[in-house]
Amino acid sequence: MTEGSRATPPEPVVCVATAGVVAADVMRAVEQAIAQRLGVAVARRPRLVDPAETWDPVRGQYSSIAMMRSALAAVPPAVARLLLVTEVDIFVPVLSFVFGHAQLDGPVAIMATARLRQSFYGLPVDGELEMMRARIEALHEVGHTFGLTHCHDRECAMSLATTVEHVDRKLDDYCTGCAALVGEALARLREPGETVAGLRGQT
Amino acid sequence: MRKSWRILVVDDEEVMRVSLAAWLSEDGYEVSTASSGREAIAMCAEKEYAMYFVDLKMPMGIDGIETMMEIRRLRPDAAVIIITAYATVDTAITAMKEGAQEYIVKPCNPEEISLLVSRIIKVKNLQRENLILRKKLARQYTFADMVSKNSRMQEVFALVRDVADLRSTVLIQGESGTGKELVARAIHSRGSRASRPFVPVSCAALPETLLESELFGYEKGSFTGANERKKGRFELADGGTLFLDEIGDIPSKVQVELLRALQERRFFRVGGTEEVEVDVRVIAATNRDLRQAVQQGTFRDDLFYRLNVITITLPPLRERREDIPLLAREFIDRLAIEVGKEVDDISEGALKLLLDHTWPGNVRELENAIERAIVTTRSHVLLAEDLAFLAREGGQRAGWTPPTDLTLDEVEKEVILATLRRTGGNVKEAATILDIDRSTLYDRLRRYGVPR
User: Mean per-residue pLDDT for A87-100?
Assistant: First the structure.
């Protein structure tokens, strides 16, 4: 869009991409949650980033920062937000692991399902529970990209979870306050004159 | 949404700095970053942060411990969390000894860091609440620009309320700097004359002839330089209040004229033949013992009785020490704005110094001391070192007259005994105050036959 154009922008699209192989049911759960709770179109882009490039041999984990950099460089055109989903265990340097990592009010978020799996804790697979966790984590990280910080409502998808038990306390939805904030952020994207995508974080 | 607390992350490694900042930002904190100790200190001096995450090992420039110490000096209430990948008991102990609130080893568990931050914020919230309550309490103890919870001062406030609407003369007694003019202004502003002028005159500042013309005015040609008629303070205060400060210092000739003016509410201008009638309430103040001055014949008894209709006696600050913390904080709040510095509290150590001082210059001296400390401090909280001049100047007690009828030995003995009384018999403390060795002090005690 050229500067000064007042044309109505296209409906915001959230792109869900994968870093490496991600189970199809996880991707479906994530896409559905975003479409249902945010009311936006969802596009899928498989294998946008290769997790092997983000492997940190010292930590024995995958670097979320490196993954974020790769994702930023590969954001598809005309998408409002990009959620990168990976099955690998990711970390930020100061922490032992993270469930996800997002740019606050920026275009890219990452979620990792490794620690959402029951098998990570030596427990039998529970497909329903794991899909629920994936939905919650997707809404949480995408919420950050719309400027939402952690919520005090422990059932809200935006409340802070540092353990999988915390994730299980949450619902796969935003509380009224957070839902309103996401709604406002989406409304701003739909305003004529706004550039597509809110990709202002990109350089 | 919660009130946003500010956090500063200090780490020379960009990736570490950015990732911690991002993690904390997601929690709703306002996070800034610094890539070196020096940058962090500059930012800390500029702005207050609720907590500081400082990497212990920063190879360039000053390290984490030094950075933390400087931050703690600038912001004694700051919570500093040392981060290190080089966890050894030694560094942990050093960090904690130097005032680190917490110590974390990276990579740390997200739950650990989250609990740590929320624990610190909980304390910060309590501190903030405490500050608000303290301010509310201070307001409760505030009366017309005066702050006190002392019972004698509360009686003064009650008396001020009672006499405000009367026309009676009020005599305010108290040492210099106890707030006599503030009381006079409070009486004026709370009474029916509040909308009329409040005219202060410092009687001691003017020589006899000037004081006379200043009080009563003069007619054109009454003396050299009197080129036109001038109204005196009595006339200027018509309908309002005339505040005669340091009334004990007025010369006897003016005392006569003042007595007449108080009795008759009428007077002559200097060089005038026509009487001027005024409606003035007089409030007089003195730091002298007027009764004694009457006995000594330097103050007219009839004027004393005329003035002494309602007497308000203000206690010196040393007799209302409980007000020192209240007053100190009140002065900090006001003077920091006037001086244009971001100072908002006082440390316990500094308060102790204030409480130990004798304050011969009373509240005014305290106000000046706080202002001086605000001007010179490099911290956002006044520290004991900012008030060190009190201890240095403590020896020069205003109003203390050295005895002239004692031998040097007798003076020394009296000083030693007085100091020991002050320290409750603690020889070590007494020796420190006297700036002599303990052995020298014991030696003197033996010499003067003081039993140990």
Answer: 94
